[in-house]
Amino acid sequence: MIGSMNGIVSYLPEVFRGADVLLSTVTGESRVALEAQACGCAVVAPWPYADSQVHDFWQPLLLSEAIERLVPQDGVTWRTTNRKHRAKIARERYNVDKTAEGFKLLYEEILNATG
Questions:
Q1: Taking the CB of the first residue and of the last residue of the chain, which one, N or C, has fewer CB atoms within 10 A?
Q2: How many separate domains does the chain show?
């Protein structure tokens, strides 16, 4: 899939599950990249947790090599095993319960400091 989407899209998980690779030029943590990984889609980006890092997006050879590192010749095996593994890692790395607990502690600290 090549293209972009604007606004709120309710069917985005289906798009990510159907895509082999998400290309992102975002250098920092990207919610889109995290959501793609949680759906099992590989991410090529300059971001440290990308499945394949590439910083020079304007160089087609580097970009194609980054994609080739992710998608071996046996695409069927890759789609079934790596997708599940990638989604599991993303869910473990970015656990929403841990994030919510962190915000709760931060808000409590702020309220205690001002009260």
A1: C
A2: 1
